[in-house]
Amino acid sequence: MNARVAQEIRTGRLELLPLCVEHAEEMAAVLSDPALHTFVGGAPDTPRGLRSRYRRLAAGSPDPDVSWLNWVVRLRAESCLTGTVQATVRPAEAGPLAEIAWVVGTPWQGRGIAGEAARALVGWLGRQQVHTVIAHIHPEHRASAAVATAAGLAPTAHRHEGEIRWQRGEGGPEGPVSH
Ligand SMILES: CC(C)(COP(=O)(O)OP(=O)(O)OC[C@H]1O[C@@H](n2cnc3c(N)ncnc32)[C@H](O)[C@@H]1OP(=O)(O)O)[C@@H](O)C(=O)NCCC(=O)NCCS
């Protein structure tokens, strides 16, 4: 059942707000630097493209067993959005499993925002009884590897489309890795 819903998560400096279509315009500017796509592919969306993407994301996964949970990351002191975090939660043998990802706009990078947001996301998932958390990271993406480390994930031997699987919880990082 697709019962999981993103809730607001607060940290020392940040508010992780459930993503909605009204965030698209501000986020299109936050995410406008093509360099954000160096390791993950693709290109920045237009405000219109992002609106339709956010509408689809907010409507949720068509598969009732899978939850799409998306947040925008608001920096309280500057009253502005700075990036997004996401978790896709699905059932797995060892209990629910979340795949997480993050992006922070170029002007706000290097201030620990992604690390703080990812740590809070993993903490929130744990409180929702989601203890297995994975992320796929390009082997040369050092900033993202540091974010995953800050969130308590560790690299595994598993590769997926050239990316390293990082994992926290059941089965990892040393244990067997399910597909
Ligand atoms: C990865 C990303 C989210 C990091 O955002 P950020 O807010 O700058 O990250 P933080 O400030 O929390 O820094 C995290 C760590 O990366 C390190 N770091 C930051 N930029 C770095 C760089 N260019 N090279 C190496 N390390 C870097 C920081 O020193 C910090 O390390 P520490 O925790 O050991 O101090 C951001 O670069 C980004 O959005 N990239 C494009 C999208 C993307 O690739 N997402 C990843 C998908 S899995």
Number of helices: 4
Indicate the low-confidence ranges by residue numbers.
Answer: 173-179
Largest sheet: 8 strands, mixed
CATH architectural type: 3-Layer(aba) Sandwich
**CA-to-CA gap between the ends?**
21 Å
Please state the structural category.
alpha+beta
Q: Give the overall shape.
A: globular
Question: How many strand segments?
Answer: 8
Commentary on this structure:
The protein has 179 residues and is α+β, with helices and mostly antiparallel strands. It has one domain (9-168): Gcn5-related N-acetyltransferase (GNAT) (Aminopeptidase, 3-Layer(aba) Sandwich). 25% of the residues lie in helices and 30% in strands. It has helices spanning 24-30, 47-59, 113-127, 142-150; strands spanning 9-10, 14-18, 67-75, 80-90, 97-104, 132-137, 154-160, 163-168. A hairpin with a 2-residue loop joins strand 7 and strand 8 (163-168). Helix 1 (24-30) crosses helix 2 (47-59) and helix 3 (113-127) crosses helix 4 (142-150). The two termini are 21 Å apart. The relative contact order is 0.15. The protein binds coenzyme A. Residues 36, 39-40, 101-104, 109-115, 135, 137, 141-144, 146-147, 150 line the site of coenzyme A.
Topology readout:
Layout: E1 9-10, E2 14-18, H1 24-30, H2 47-59, E3 67-75, E4 80-90, E5 97-104, H3 113-127, E6 132-137, H4 142-150, E7 154-160, E8 163-168
Parallel strand pairs: 5-6
Antiparallel strand pairs: 1-2, 2-3, 3-4, 4-5, 6-8, 7-8
Helix pairs in contact: 1-2, 3-4
